[in-house]
Amino acid sequence: MGNNDVVIIGAGHNSLVAAGYLAKAGRRVVVLEKSSVVGGTATTDETFPGFKISPVADTAGYLSDEVKTDLKLDSQVEIIPLDPIASSPEPDGTHLAIWRDTARTVKEIERFSPADAAKYPLFVERMTKIAGVIEGLLKLTPMDLPSVGLADIRAALGLAGPVLKLGRKNINELLRLLPTPVEDLLNEWFESDVLKGALAASAVKDVTWGPQETGTTFTFIYNWALSDTGLFRSASLVKGGIGELTKAMAETARGFGAQIRTDVEVKSIDVERGKVTGVTLANGESIQAGTVVSGASPRTTFLELLDARYLDTSFVRHVHNIKYRGSASRMHFALSGLPEFPSLAGAETDGYLRGPIQIAPSINYLQRAFDHTKYGRVASAPYLDIVIPTVADPSLAPSGKHIMSVTVKYTPYALRDGDWAAKGPEIAKLVVDTIAEYAPNFPGLIIDQMLLTPVDLETVYDLPEGNVNHGEMTLDQFFHMRPIPGYARYRTPVEGMYLCGPGCHPGGGVTGLPGQNAAREILKDAK
Amino acid sequence: MPRQTPFHSRTNALCESQNWVEWSGYFSAQTYEMDHIHEYNAIRLGAGLFDVSPLFKYFIRGRDAVALMNRVITRDASKCGVGQIFYTAWCDDEGKIIDDGTVARLGEDSFRMTAATPTLCWLEDNAFGMDVEIEEVTDAYGALALQGPTSRDILQQLTDTDLSSLKYFRMLETKLAGAPVNISRTGYTGDLGYEIFAEPDQCEGIWDALIETGAAYKLLPAGMTALDMVRIEAGMLLLDADFHSASTAMFEVEKTSPYELGLGWMVNLKKDHFVGQEALRRENARGPATCTVGLEIDVLALEKVFVQNSMPLQLPYQSWVDELPVYSDSDQRDHIGRATSGTWSPVMKKYPVIGRVKPQYAKIGTRVYVEQTVEARRYAVPATVVKMPFFDPPRKRE
Lengths: 527, 398
Prior knowledge:
- The structure holds 2 protein chains of 2 kinds.
- By secondary structure, chain A is of the alpha+beta class.
- Chain A folds into 2 domains: 6-42 and 63-73 and 242-321 and 472-526, FAD/NAD(P)-binding domain; 83-137 and 151-234 and 328-410 and 412-452.
- Chain A contains 18 helices and 19 strands.
- In chain A, the strands form 6 sheets. Chain A has a 5-stranded parallel sheet with strand order 9-2-1-13-19. A 5-stranded antiparallel sheet of chain A has the order 15-16-17-14-18. Chain A has a 3-stranded antiparallel sheet with strand order 10-11-12, with helices on one face.
- Chain A is globular, with a radius of gyration of 22 Å.
- The relative contact order of chain A is 0.19.
- Chain B has 3 domains: 8-51 and 139-222, 2-Layer Sandwich (Gyrase A, domain 2); 57-137 and 257-286, Aminomethyltransferase beta-barrel domains (Alpha-Beta Plaits, 2-Layer Sandwich); 291-394, Aminomethyltransferase beta-barrel domains (Elongation Factor Tu (Ef-tu), domain 3, Beta Barrel), CATH 2.40.30.110.
- Chain B is 21% helix and 31% strand.
- Chain B is built from 9 helices and 19 strands.
- Chain B has helices at residues 8-14, 37-45, 65-72, 120-126, 151-157, 200-214, 224-233, 277-286, 299-308; strands at 19-23, 26-31, 47-51, 56-61, 85-91, 97-107, 110-115, 133-136, 142-147, 171-176, 179-184, 193-198, 219-221, 291-297, 320-327, 335-342, 352-357, 367-374, 377-386.
- In chain B, the strands form 4 sheets. Chain B has a 6-stranded mixed sheet with strand order 10-11-12-9-3-13. Chain B has a 6-stranded antiparallel β-barrel with strand order 14-17-16-15-18-19.
- Chain B is globular, with a radius of gyration of 21 Å.
- Chain A binds chain B through residues 274, 303, 307-310, 312-317, 320, and chain B through 67, 71, 92-93, 122, 125-126, 128-130, 273, 275, 278.
């Protein structure tokens, strides 16, 4: 193989997006995937026979429209929008649902606070404006601070429009808000605990923070910027499961000429005199390439695949210090019927169960759940994010039966007492009991269940410390600081070696953006 | 309050001056007598005994010990034979010097490293992914330096091992007055001399034996004042005097590379990757920005300055550490560098100074001007670039 060939490590969705763009541009690309299927954390399988579950990622609502179009994904997969985008059953038997339609949501909020209901439309308008600016930033390659180049300025000019539209007052507001706790933001607007809990939950779903921690307004706005709902969280499924999306990405890449090999484990990235020369596989085979792109996490890439002794000390120290500290478990159930949430009375007919269900009755509830994590303990009353995908897509399970997928927070990777091997059954029971508090018939419906703890996520999916985003999505690990300061432009200290995974800007979620941005920079360097 | 070294009961009893300084958190004698000159003379004419226990000491052991040493230091550790010692520098990623010290190869896969500054964290940072064990042993060993022309004779009285076979920068394990010790032929005086490492409970006995035996060989316990004079004569650089560590420098301009410090000979660009190698490769190609030089002040010219002021010549009675401007001209218009330490050398009857100047002024024989202050007025006194070490007796290596 000649020097122009590109090896991409891993076939997660960002790798596949990068492969698609690079192959489309005429590069000869080979993707090497350790497992027997493509998709990385965005796969769908039949862990329970007859039931198709998406073990890690399940929402396609953050996928970039541009990626969708460029890689012709629209014609290959069917995206099912969910509505409501979140419903919160409350311990007292009431419930709140947030709908895509603001007017419909206002009516829901009125049951809790007429004042909040009156303010909600303005809140949506203001946040949408601010999120628009962040969205622009997320799609750019981060600037090389402090030495910003002309090209950066030219690229950033595209942002001038949304920023100017924001107005001086809102720019100040944006800068003031980003580092604040989401609780402070919501307290400035609303009085209802139920509403604030429902909104705050999405801000902490993908980070190990509670809503009272600094910077959670940033994650709140980040979700808003990328979501397909125009609101604070995404709510979409891929028909047949998220695995259909990554399969389609692989097909597109193949169509452009990329070669995708599964069951191929990369053992090391080979470097000579500071330049990448290719990779060596676990079976001893070497593949030469002038460009190697890693979809693996920065930790795996630099500290395991590369020989750390060829990297600068300060670089290794920075990579070593990236915060991962995952705290989410994933739990899946095969159910014989639909659970009944009395608080979502008439739920089935009203379609409440069609969207995500949040067990997050208040900000205090979320914060208390997080507080346990600070001390290495599992939350005694966990925050759960529940999706019953079979309501919107019955094809996923045998007729009349259902699947339930739950994100469980907080279950810290680093336990103070005990180890994860013994903790699993305890957490499984906690999840079942918690759901049963809101849906008493739930335990009787369970045909089968499966729990993925942070340690399982680490071992099965190569997610350091069980963090699905290859590094905490906190403000201090974002933009020009993701994965580490000085290396946020997908390039690495090794010439010809790039990163394309969610450890890079703009982070995790099935967005396709790290892969797209990385491919753009790789092609730039080839010129 | 500083801590006491394993020799403290003995050094304290002998320290008439009670002139203590703090050295890396330990009590260290500045002088033993009220005046340092006897101690200085002992080092050059007999032997001086220094308590150098505060040196930071590390053991590096394991399958990747050579790899770690090679990643950290600028010399090729694989070329250091068992029983051999390297004087070496280590640099940061930008090729700027962090510290210098010795690396002694104890076995195929084990080293002992000494450093002026705490280095454990740096070693650990660089050992990522390596099969190696790093242990700080600063407190686990007391250390003495026995330096001067009679040092070998003194030691030989106390051991059965034939010390005449112990070559410069080599070491051996033996017994000294019955106590197990590691003796290396190294030092910071540029003279014949040895460094002795022993476990703390052996230290007092070793000290007593050396003092007792040394009495017939003009041995005196010596402090830091005398040591600083002889290290300048030996052209040896002092951290925070002649250079600053890149890890504590406040400004970029304070950082220096081994090339700038005249330590280019210890930078091995051909070996496998080490920290700072790329930066040093680039610097080697373009040449260093400054060069460390030995300067000899023209004492007769200096005397004229004193005479102009109706004063007799005054020479520094002990060493100084400063940043004195160095000029290419007597008008003090063209600033070309700095003088960082100097001393009157009683044994050489000369005034050697260590400094750093622009490369075009580093050639031996170049005339430069060093600022000297007399009666609160600054003068540019002529000095000549000379070879370092200033004092280099053959007995150092013989």
